[in-house]
């Protein structure tokens, strides 16, 4: 208090600082700039300080001492009395405080309203938000100022009165605007609004609707409050339509309650929460918004809420507010259409403004009130919330007043209290804020009043951004609603003059505009307006006359047209009948056509299949023809080649034949000479043998040179002479060694000639050519023929090559008259010839002889007659020579296959 007194008591309100600092919850602000809540862009914006008014109530009783003195309309002086403790030093100093306006104790409610609230109602109509709250010690007259009583209406009813008088002719029909529960509004069509009105009417008759206002005699208290007739505001946009909505909430023990809530069977109210809408406006979520059309309805709603408001009897006030109450008047406006008849159905064009009238609970000291229990707790909550309000505004002011390059903004604790949280958007956002500081001037309230004064002084230094609502520009002609109104008046006048057609005229504001460009500025009851209405009536009469004529003409034309129509109808009937019969024929034809089309489709599909098959076959034929041509070409080529080979072979064969023939002739001559020489020697030998035999003195001739052998040699020589046996075979067996291979039982074991040793080659394959039923060999020495294959007939040379034989053995068996059997093995190499055949070159003869046990000792000439059948399949020649010839012939046949043509075999 000392510090406060040391300050200059007289201090004018501070002008807005050059660079107000941003609050902790708001973006930084520069001079004249605040946050643009709609677009986010920084743009210059004017600011106004919080308007603080001071109202001093009369002293409660005549005996009360006062410490306050109103010096003039803006200054109040606090003058402590002698008995106050603070004046113990004897010095009496008067404190003076300056406010926007200070109301004397005898100031009327109208004075307060006109100075404080009327500008706020103007703001409301212009589309701006305003906040008005009363602040002061308990019993200082806050409720009295805000609400008043039946005789002295407070600010709130007067605001409603002024508002409704201003918008009375421009109100939209009920339920055209409907709250969207998110602090916004939407526009219903005329039909939907009508439906809602009917529902409300039903509720009214049923008596169920909480706010279904009845057309009844006004409450005398309410009627008295609405009795004064203020002048309507001229700031109204006459082309808009308006609706008023009321909400009424209280903050009790730092909780929000909806005083208009339909709580049903529940007695207690539900606690509500505060939320921020899309435009950063704080609102009570789920609060009841009641649309009112008159002051009476609005006050009725207020009285309903007032009954629920927490009031209490304290020592200092018989009807003390135990909560902060917020009465919100929300004005919704939207432009009308081009005819000025209905609201444009676009919620983007809606402008919502609100005037919040806050009756704060009074601060009180428990030492004075002697409160206990619930009252004490209420007082604690009230004081806390008021303290938060003070702190918020103080921080806001400090933040705004900070200078320097790096200002440190304090965080403003709006959320610490519901009341500051609720109005955060006013302090951080934009609008107009006014405060009425209510003062009870008695000396007992001195201390608390001083606190109030200091707070009030500080508050008026806080700057609030001025709202600049943006009006939607739809490009519609101004004054359309007035034009609409004039037109309706003219129509009514004509109707009253006995021209009922006037009611059927459609609204034509264009006609009103054509009467003069300055008509929007006329007052409705001015003489200019009257003359315009007269002009309008004349035009409309002319229009009605013209319409009558046109209607008569139209009736005539309608009759003609009707007649024409009847004729047409007749013709039409005929045509319909024809059409029906044609349709039937057409249907038949269409069915037939469909069936034919179906058949055609089937045939087409089968033709497609056949075409596919034909093309496939043609392709196959082409391929085969191509192959045939290739084969024929190949064949003709081979034929030509074969012919060429044949010619070549024949010429070569002829050359070879000539050559062989010459060689053969040459050899034959040589052999003949040689054989003749041999024959001569043999004859000589035979002769000697004959001589010996005849002399019976047998010389010791070698066994091999017996007469029999010699005879055989002779026979063989004869064979050679005849050319039946090849010279090559004979030459490979020297006569001197031939005897070595004989093996006779008479002379013991047969001696083996090395030259006649059987081939041990593992790779040789033998082809044994023998008789079908040979006499079994009983000799000790058996022929060694490895890989042998035996054949009885050799008809084709292929047997040689098929078998893969490299060796050939011809087996010949002979038996003489004594029963001795002689087996001869003619052995040779198989040599392939250049003509594809094979030739055998004999190189060895092995002779195996078996002695008959019953033969006579007399040597006889061998006879093969008994063996001929078994060995060669036919009668054998009786002589060895014949046998040799037979062997040779068989060799010719069996080995070469075509040997009969070859002279070498
Ligand atoms: N300006 C005034 N003229 C005549 N009577 C007044 C005036 N101001 C207040 N009163 C009377 O003072 C009494 C208390 O006033 P009011 O209830 O408005 O105080 P308050 O500030 O609202 O108190 P609380 O904070 O406890 O609610 C009421 O009976 C009221 O009629």
From TrEMBL:
Keyword ATP-binding: yes
UniProt cross-references to InterPro entries, sorted A to Z: Kif23_Arf-bd, Kif23_Arf-bd_sf, Kinesin-like_fam, Kinesin_motor_CS, Kinesin_motor_dom, Kinesin_motor_dom_sf, P-loop_NTPase
UniProt feature, compositional bias: Low complexity: 16-28
Ranges of biased composition (kind: Basic and acidic residues): 711-723
Keyword Methyltransferase on entry: no
Signal sequence, renumbered to the chain: none
Compositional bias annotation for Polar residues: 40-49, 728-739
Gene3D superfamilies with a match to the protein in the record: Kinesin motor domain (3.40.850.10), Kinesin-like protein Kif23, Arf6-interacting domain (2.60.40.4330)
Gene Ontology biological process terms in this record: microtubule-based movement; mitotic spindle midzone assembly
Gene Ontology MF terms: ATP binding; ATP hydrolysis activity; microtubule binding; microtubule motor activity
A Pfam entry, by short name: Kinesin
GO CC term, one of those recorded: microtubule
Origin: domain of life: Eukaryota
Protein location: Cytoplasm, Cytoskeleton
Binding-site residues, ATP: 136-143
Keyword terms, alphabetized: ATP-binding, Cytoplasm, Cytoskeleton, Microtubule, Motor protein, Nucleotide-binding
Sequence ranges assigned to domain Kinesin motor in this UniProt record: 49-462
Annotated region (Disordered), positions in chain: 1-50, 637-660, 697-740, 852-875
Protein family according to the UniProt entry: Belongs to the TRAFAC class myosin-kinesin ATPase superfamily. Kinesin family.
PANTHER family linked: KINESIN-LIKE PROTEIN KIF23, KINESIN-RELATED
The protein's name in its UniProt record: Kinesin-like protein
Species classification: Eukaryota, Metazoa, Ecdysozoa, Arthropoda, Hexapoda
Encoding gene per record: LOC117571612
């Amino acid at each position: 208090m000392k510090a406060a007194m040391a300050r200059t008591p007289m201090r004018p309100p501070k002008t807005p600082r050059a660079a107000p600092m941003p609050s902790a919850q708001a973006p930084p602000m520069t001079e004249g700039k605040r946050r643009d809540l709609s677009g986010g862009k920084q743009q210059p914006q004017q600011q106004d300080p919080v308007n603080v008014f001071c109202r001093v109530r009369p002293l409660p009783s005549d005996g009360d001492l006062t410490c306050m003195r109103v010096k003039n309309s803006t200054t109040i002086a606090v003058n402590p009395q002698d008995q106050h403790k603070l004046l113990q030093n004897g010095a009496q100093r008067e404190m003076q405080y300056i406010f926007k306006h200070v109301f004397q104790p005898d100031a009327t409610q109208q004075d307060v309203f006109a100075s404080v609230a009327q500008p706020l109602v103007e703001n409301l109509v212009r589309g701006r938000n305003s906040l008005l709250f009363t602040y002061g010690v308990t019993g200082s007259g806050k409720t009295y100022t805000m609400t008043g009583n039946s005789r002295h209406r407070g600010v709130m009813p007067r605001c409603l009165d002024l508002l409704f008088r201003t918008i009375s002719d421009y109100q939209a029909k009920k339920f055209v605007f409907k709250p969207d529960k998110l602090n916004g509004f939407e526009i219903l069509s005329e039909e939907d609004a009508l439906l809602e009105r009917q529902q409300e009417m039903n509720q009214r008759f049923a008596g169920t609707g909480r706010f279904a206002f009845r057309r009844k005699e006004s409450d005398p208290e309410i009627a008295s409050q609405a009795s004064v007739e203020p002048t309507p505001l001229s700031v109204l946009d006459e082309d808009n339509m308006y609706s008023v909505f009321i909400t009424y909430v209280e903050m009790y023990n730092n909780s929000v309650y909806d005083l208009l809530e339909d709580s049903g069977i529940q007695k207690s109210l539900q606690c509500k929460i505060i939320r921020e809408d899309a435009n950063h406006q704080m609102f009570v979520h789920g609060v009841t918004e009641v649309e009112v059309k008159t002051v009476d309805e609005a006050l009725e709603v207020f009285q309903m809420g007032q009954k629920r408001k927490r009031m209490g009897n304290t020592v200092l006030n018989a009807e003390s507010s135990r909560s902060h109450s917020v009465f919100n008047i929300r004005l919704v406006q939207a432009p009308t259409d081009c005819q000025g008849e209905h609201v444009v159905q676009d919620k983007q064009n809606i402008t919502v403004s609100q005037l919040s009238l806050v009756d704060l609970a009074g601060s009180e000291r428990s030492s004075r009130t002697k409160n206990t229990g619930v009252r004490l707790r209420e007082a604690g909550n009230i004081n806390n919330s008021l303290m938060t309000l003070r702190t918020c505004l103080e921080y806001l002011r400090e933040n705004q007043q900070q200078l320097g390059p790096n200002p440190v903004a304090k965080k403003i604790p709006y959320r610490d209290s519901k009341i500051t949280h609720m109005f955060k958007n006013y302090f951080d956002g934009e609008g107009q804020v006014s405060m009425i500081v209510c003062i009870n001037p008695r000396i007992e309230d001195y201390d608390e009043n001083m606190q109030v004064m200091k707070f009030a002084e500080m508050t008026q230094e806080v700057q609030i951004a001025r709202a600049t609502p943006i009006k939607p520009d739809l490009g519609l002609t101004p004054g359309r609603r007035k034009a609409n109104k004039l037109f309706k008046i003219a129509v009514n006048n004509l109707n009253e003059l006995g021209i009922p057609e006037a009611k059927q005229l459609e609204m034509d504001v264009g006609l009103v505009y054509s009467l003069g460009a300055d008509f929007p500025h006329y007052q409705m009851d001015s003489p200019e307006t009257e003359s315009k209405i007269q002009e309008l009536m004349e035009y409309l009469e002319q229009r009605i006359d013209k319409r009558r004529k046109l209607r008569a003409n139209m009736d005539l034309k309608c009759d003609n047209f009707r007649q024409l129509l009847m004729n047409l109808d007749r013709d039409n009937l005929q045509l319909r009948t024809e059409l029906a019969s044609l349709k039937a024929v057409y249907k038949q034809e269409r069915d037939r056509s469909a069936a034919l089309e179906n058949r055609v489709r089937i045939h087409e599909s089968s033709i497609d299949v056949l075409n596919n098959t034909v093309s496939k076959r043609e392709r196959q034929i082409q391929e085969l023809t191509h192959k045939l041509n290739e084969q024929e070409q190949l064949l003709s080529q081979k034929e030509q080649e074969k012919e060429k080979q044949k010619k070549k072979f024949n010429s070569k064969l002829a050359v070879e034949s000539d050559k062989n023939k010459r060689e053969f002739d040459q050899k034959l001559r040589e052999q003949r000479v040689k054989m003749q020489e041999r024959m001569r020697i043999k004859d000589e030998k035979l002769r000697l043998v004959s001589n010996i035999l005849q002399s019976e003195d047998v010389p010791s001739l070698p066994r091999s040179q017996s007469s029999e052998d010699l005879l055989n040699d002779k026979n063989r020589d004869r064979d050679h002479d005849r050319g039946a046996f090849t010279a090559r075979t004979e030459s490979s067996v020297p006569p001197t060694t031939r005897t070595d291979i004989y093996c006779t039982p008479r002379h013991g074991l047969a001696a083996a000639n090395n030259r006649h040793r059987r081939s041990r080659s593992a790779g040789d394959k033998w082809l044994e050519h023998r008789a079908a039923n040979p006499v079994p060999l009983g000799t000790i020495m058996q022929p060694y023929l490895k890989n042998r294959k035996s054949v009885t007939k050799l008809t084709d040379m292929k047997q040689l090559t098929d078998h893969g034989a490299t060796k050939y053995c011809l087996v010949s068996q002979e038996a003489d008259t004594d029963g001795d059997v002689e087996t001869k093995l003619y052995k040779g190499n198989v040599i392939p010839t250049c003509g594809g055949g094979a030739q055998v070159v004999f190189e060895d003869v092995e002779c195996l002889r078996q002695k008959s046990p019953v033969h006579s000792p007399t040597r006889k000439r061998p006879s093969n007659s008994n063996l001929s059948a078994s060995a060669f399949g036919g009668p054998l020649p009786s002589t060895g020579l014949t046998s040799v010839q037979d062997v040779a012939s068989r060799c010719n046949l069996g080995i070469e296959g075509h040997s009969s043509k070859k002279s070498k075999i």
